Amino acid sequence: MQQAHDFGDESDALYELLAPLNDEDFDRPTRFKDWTINDILAHLHIFNHLADLSLLKPDQFAKEYADMVALRETGATMREATDQLLNNIKGRALLDLWHGYYPKSTAAFGAADPKQRVKWAGPDMSARSSISARLMETWSHAQAIYDLLGVQRTNRDRIKNIVIMGMNTFGWTFINRGEDVPEDVPYVRLTAPSGEIWEWNEASDTNRIEGLAEEFCQVVTQCRNVGDTGLKVTGETATRWMAVAQCFAGPPETPPAVAARQV
User: Fold this and answer.
1) CA neighbor of 206 nearest in space, from 180, 187, 178, 182
2) What is the pLDDT of residues 165-198, one digit of tens each?
């Protein structure tokens, strides 16, 4: 699956960003809920591991996921539960753990049948959807680290996987919030990092979203408020979608306020 190799490449890009840091740097809080770099790496690693188990060892996945749920039910936050499951590994040791592991995920999913069904926290999903979700999480959580370090990110066309997730979750975004799904799905016209034009849905001048693909990704992953992007949003449905878009699983989340994540 190309999505598996895209996941590996996005993880490599994050590793290159983190490789020069020292142990103390990993404890710096980001603008994402004050999560530190340690928190982000631990979160990425534990869910990469769980995704692998769901593909290769579903019984073991069920056990280890149940362990995490049990910790959460005692009142532990996601960060506290992850720390316990990883024995509080931090800093460059955590970086090495994550960096040594994700190539295994790339290889396992790269060799898998894209249509294979795998277990997850919610409904089953395809192997392709599972590794696409890992790519999306790696890319979106990495944005907080790029912002913290003041590094301008260079995106590649592999972010099209995230755009597709954003498009595919248009209806779910509204359902997840208990709202009716609008029938008039907006026309979306995005410029890829390469300059290629990506388009979805029927062309419309009155219900459309146009701009940079990377900014669309930032909005649907809730890395940015749409007001902090250059996206041109026209029409009631397009405006409502971009105000609450959420391409990731879980209960409805409130996107960051204007300027809350912007640097």
Assistant:
1) 187
2) 999 999 999 999 999 999 999 999 999 999 999 9
Tell me the three-class secondary structure of 113-157, residue by residue. Answer: CCCCEECCCCCCEEHHHHHHHHHHHHHHHHHHHHHHHCCCCCCCH
Amino acid (1-letter code) at residue 19: A
* Host domain of residue 8: 2-154
pLDDT of residue 263: 73
* Helix%, strand%, coil% for the chain, nearest 5: 55, 10, 35
- Is 123 found in the same domain as 35? yes
Tokens representing 249?
């699983």
CA distance 166 to 164: 5
- Could you tell me the sign of the dihedral formed by the alpha carbons of 252, 257, 258, 262, in that order? negative
Is the residue at 250 inside a domain? Answer: no
- Note whether 108 and 29 are same-domain residues: yes
Report the CATH number that the domain containing residue 23 is assigned in CATH: 1.20.120.450
For the chain, how many structural domains are there in total?
A: 2
Coil, helix or strand at residue 204: coil
Residue 263 belongs to a domain: no
d(CA 125, CA 108): 16
Q: What is the pLDDT of residue 174?
A: 97
pTM of the model: 0.95
Which residues on neighbouring strands pair with residue 36, listed in sequence order?
Answer: 29
* Residues linked to residue 233 through DSSP beta bridges, in sequence order: 209
Residue 148 lies in a domain: yes
Residues 110, 176, single domain; the answer is: no
Average pLDDT over residues 227-250: 96
